[in-house]
From TrEMBL:
Organism: Deinococcus petrolearius
Family matches, as InterPro entries: DUF2254_membrane
Transmembrane keyword on record: yes
Protein's name in the database: DUF2254 domain-containing protein
Source organism, top-level taxon: Bacteria
Amino acid sequence: MKRLLFRARQTSEQFWFIPALMTLAAVMLAALGIELEERHGLPPELTFIYSGGETGSRSLLSAIASSSIGVAGTVFSITIAALSYAAGSMGPRLLDNFTRDRGNQVTLGIFIATFAFSLWTLRSVQGGEDAPFVPHYNVTFALLLALGCIGALVYYLAHVTRNINMTQVINLLRDDLRVALQRATEPRDDQSAGAPPPDTFWEGGEVLRAPAGGYLQQVDTGALARAAAEAGTVVRLLVRTGDYVFPNTTIARGQPTLPPDMLEHLTLGDGRVAGQDLEYSARQLAEVAARALSPGTNDPMTAIDVIDRFGDALCTLKDRRWPSGLYQEGGQLRLMLPTSDFAGLLDTMFRMIRQYGADSPAVTVRLLEVLGQVGTCLEDPGRRQVLRRHADLVLEDALRVTENSGDRADLQARYAACCRQLGGAAP
């Protein structure tokens, strides 16, 4: 069931989905308007309804249909070209945001629905003396749709201009990362599921091999734990969400057996998706920073903005902990999953920035400052130790390529302040 909902949500986010629904609704509305006027005619008291003849209505509907589809094609083709250019510096996530944005989908839907409504109405216009028919209701509504297209065009131009702004993209990715962190962690006062069994426990159990390759996009943990309980077995998943699964490799073990139809609870796909994959959301922001630090772009301010957003997201973990990956059903352990941890998250966030930004003192200094400030929020000694490790790596890489004595002094000063904030002294 969870896989079906996952696929349905992915389908609903496709660029064509909302326009297709709006087009279908427009055709049905056009047919309803024609049927209503054929049966009941046009009441004389409705003076605001279009009252022209066959020639005028045909010309008006033709103009609305041609202009709506023409403007839509021209504007969206130019926008895609602009987005493709911008995505070269910010990464392919920008195009993904564009196609999934509801505002963009509704705007395209308005243009296409206006075209479909006008075209469907146009076919019902009849001239001559035998049985002339002009769908006055539909022509009036087509005029209103044309006005709506003008408003949608103005909104769309402003909306797209704002969405390709670098700060807006970074803030959007920051929001995605916050949501992913909330999903991946749990409050500190939650009860632990107990200690995991030793590795020898899994010896001799049934093995599950991947039937095909792809990224593990989702695990239905609740259904899988219940299936293991019904089968009287314990399952250990060897890959975590976001890992690429190679065909015929071992991805799970069961003791003593595996529950039937276990693959029904695992969703494989061609790409990584946000949701259960925490590191995917962090990697998107890190990619923006890495591209900004490339010699062809040379935009350290964008990298500094990304570092600030990483610090923002990490400080939300103050009262949260990482789950154990152990799931019980009926008071007994039934499922064991590999999970992300704080060290892995920081590697995803800061490794590429540290490597590509080592020769930029502005970036490394800000990175040391953020690591120290995050340490004041996260009081756990283990997390502070991980932060200290990254501070040590940043200083080592930066001093190796920084020759200016003033910059080296700034780095040493920021590193010493970072160590004090992390509860230790600089070596």
